[in-house]
Amino acid sequence: MIAAPASGSGKTLVTCGVLQALVNRKLKTASFKCGPDYIDPMFHSRIIGTRSKNLDAFFTDEPTLRYLFSKGSEGCDISVIEGVMGFYDGFKIDSSEASSYDVSMKTDTPVVLLIDCRGASLSVLPVLQGFLRFKENNIKGVIFNRMSERVFKTIAPQAEKMGVKAIGYVPKVNDLVLESRHLGLVLPGEVENLKEKLNRLADVLEKTLDMDALIDLAKSAPELAYSIPDVPRAYEGVRVGIADDEAFCFIYEDNLELLRRMGAEVISFSPIEDERLPEVDGIILPGGYPELHALKLERNESMRNDIKAKLDGGMPCMAECGGFMYLHTLMTDRNGMVYRMCDVVNGGSDNSNKLVRFGYATFKSNRTGLWCKGHEFHYWESDNCGEDWTATKPSGASYACIHDDGHMIAGFPHLYYYSNKALPEEFLERCQTYKNECA
Description:
By secondary structure, the protein is of the alpha/beta class. It is about 30% helix and about 25% strand. The radius of gyration is 23 Å and the shape is elongated.
């Protein structure tokens, strides 16, 4: 695991560079991201070519976490986990639960602490010492970001006296930084010459990091015991359409894997490019950035009309965040222009210019008690968020959310299916019923 004392320390940049260097060495590499973030795994998988998944100790219990880690690492030579936030920062201010630290302990993963050294030299040592002493941990190495070779040669021996391996340093690479949008990075396709930049970064890290020591550290991880969670396979022949294009790209691979394990066939379609839905028994509209593609979505009138007709006719649907916005009557883009959408949810979505209901929560149906863990992160807000479910945050605060009419579950929350397998099972049951009724 590559972790750091705080967000903004350079974890994604360095992780991507390390992954590219490992791939360039012809190692079959798996990558993971701690927490709920979608975009970092897209950098890992779509650009570098490594398989990438999320590991989140809020969403799942320890046995499931270990299974998902092992499943994602299957057939690979090495796995790299990118941490989230500060190493010890959990979902509560005073807790390390669901933190990078928590994931590292539950998966027995050795950790390399990445310390941002901007504006400091000797002072990085007490930072390292504090993280080592705070509580029992798996920190085995350290990388100093934005440090010169001269300073590293002086600091590294003192760091190693603390019992960790000084893996190396990362010099300033201003021309290789990854810019951010909203909470995450820009999408991989938006970074000019990204593949070239990552290969240049990998070349830099091959010179400034002890990559062999990093690989040896990974080899020191103990064998990971795990069990395969029981999953009902009762939905053979059910076909689920998943929106997947530049507007709708935020989907957990583990969610799709779970649907397939339950017997469903998952079929991708594009609300931007395709004229109509494929022949499916239900659809999933994930999050993404539909506000950046509002004109294209509006112009594809045949797709919008087909979705409205099918959903009004009872086709099951799960829609999250950007997918939920797409179901509205209207959507405002980032320039204030208003566009017609699917008109399934009566109302509009607009830029609030601030984070709305950000963070983890447990979401529960007011009607059936069906629940699922998930999170929200969005700047766009709706004037019709739904009131059929209740969200409860770790702090105890709660609020109404989500539309659920027995066919459609739609709202801003992103839901993680492995947190409660009853949710995807209920969705597939609705799809099976709809299929039988239409036969």
